[in-house]
Amino acid sequence: MTTTPSLKATKHSNTTTAAPGFLPSLLDRIPLPRWAIYAIFAAGLLLILICLICCCVKCCCTGKKKKKKMPDETINMKGISGSTTAALVQPDAVDLEYGGSNQQRGKLQYSLEFNASRSELSVGIKEAAALQAMDSGGTSDPYVKIYILPSKSKTFETKVFRKTLNPVFNETFRYPIPQKELIESTLVMQVYDFNRFSKHDIIGEIRLNLSTVDWNHVIEEWRDLSEASKHEQEHLGEICFSLRYVPTSSKLTVIILEAKNLKKMDHGGSSDPYVKVQLILDQKKWKKKRTSVKKRTLNPYFNESFTFEVSFEQIQKVQLVISVWDHDKMSRNDAIGKIFLGCMATGNQLRHWADMLSNPRKPVAQWHTLLSAEQVDSTLALKHTLKIPFTNKIL
Ligand SMILES: *[C@@H]1O[C@H](CO)[C@@H](O)[C@H](O)[C@H]1NC(C)=O
Ligand SMILES: *[C@@H]1O[C@H](CO)[C@@H](O)[C@H](O)[C@H]1NC(C)=O
Ligand SMILES: *[C@@H]1O[C@H](CO)[C@@H](O)[C@H](O)[C@H]1NC(C)=O
Ligand SMILES: *[C@@H]1O[C@H](CO)[C@@H](O)[C@H](O)[C@H]1NC(C)=O
Ligand SMILES: [Ca+2]
Ligand SMILES: [Ca+2]
Q: Which residues form the C2 domain (predicted)?
């Protein structure tokens, strides 16, 4: 222990004595004692050493940080682009706080254009972002329903996007409407969450007073979804049925399973429902069958099966119309609600039809929300009248 300082001291003295004449003469001219100069020199070296160490440590640390950060960033990017929603689903502390403090429904980007010479309104449903999660997995299966009030005659639906909160719909719908009527109308765009085995949940909606829109320009904008107004949604009920198509035997089988929450049509606060299954081919009523009547219930269970002969060529053109009616002994039967399926259908109805076609021989069951009979009839009529301009556009 005691030997080491003496050794150091001798080494020091050796180096100083061995130094050439120039350095000592320089040191002599500095008005400080030698030991002080050495101390300053040593301190300088130490400072440089500390700086070097610091730099090394900093480099290593930021390197590690960068490596750690990279995956985070890629996850965030994926979440934003919407290709993987898993990142958004992770119950992050920040997300939970955000969701809890204000109920974010999300926002929708749409476009509006009115062609006065054609008397045609084009509604573009572009995309939605940061939609509220409605399913247990922390996602939704969004689609958009579009209609115009007060006529409420034509309802369009976009395709359903599975398990995403940022769907890119990119669909355009055209309404033939005179300008006079247009400026007295309200456009309603509602975002729903699709559920195969239960009622579809509304995420939010946008109502646009079309009298306040500047029609000289094409409008394209984002807007936050607001809560759907309950009073105006006429609830007609839901129906569940399964579809099965066997191409080899040309057999289309429709099983009417059940309906629920049907609208009350009778004075007693109930209805006597039955279901009509109808096929339309080349705009003509082609085939028709119906279930038995279930007395005084709003949630009837049918489980009745109907089979039709439909060739593979006909299945591409046929339209299946399912309607629920209230039976009345004393007066005319009233339609409660209606929907149609086929290659010209949209939204959930088209999805069900496509599922049936892509799963030959397998029964595919799905719930559907009933629409008003007038609405469906006019949509069917509209499809026919618009068929020619649509094909022209594609060509
Ligand atoms: C409106 O439609 C007509 C007829 O199809 C077309 O010639 C015209 O370019 C359209 N106008 C606008 C502003 O898109
Ligand atoms: C949206 O549709 C248009 C026309 O079909 C197409 O040109 C465009 O690439 C689509 N955009 C996206 C983001 O899919
Ligand atoms: C739409 O806006 C106009 C002008 O602000 C107003 O007179 C009209 O009542 C509004 N219509 C609806 C349905 O809110
Ligand atoms: C529905 O009908 C089918 C065929 O008639 C029968 O096999 C099935 O058990 C019925 N299901 C229920 C739940 O009643
Ligand atoms: Ca869902
Ligand atoms: Ca009745």
A: 104-223, 235-368
